[in-house]
Amino acid sequence: MAIRQGWSSDQGFVALTEILLFALVIVCFWDSGSSGSMRFVLFYMLCICPYQQIVNWRFFKLQTRVRELEQQVQDLVGAKAPSAPSTETP
């Protein structure tokens, strides 16, 4: 159903992940028993690392798609390119 509304499954996954990570950050910062450095470590482990992985994965997927499109363009240009005219005179 999300796809029908214009969202890809990747966008839905990223949005859900961001919401969950934001909720974990709130829980970590509300824990008054943790020290400041421990809160930073938790914040980094729960939010920054997974988000970086998501971004890297999406970038890799985009790079792969760009390579596929470049190959398709090269195939189309090669198939439609006229052969070089002959320079020989009869």
UniProtKB/TrEMBL annotation:
Name of the molecule in the record: Uncharacterized protein
Lineage per the UniProt record: Bacteria, Pseudomonadati, Planctomycetota, Planctomycetia, Gemmatales
Lineage: superkingdom: Bacteria
Organism listed in the record: Limnoglobus roseus
UniProtKB keywords: Membrane, Transmembrane, Transmembrane helix
Bilayer-spanning residue ranges: 12-32, 38-57
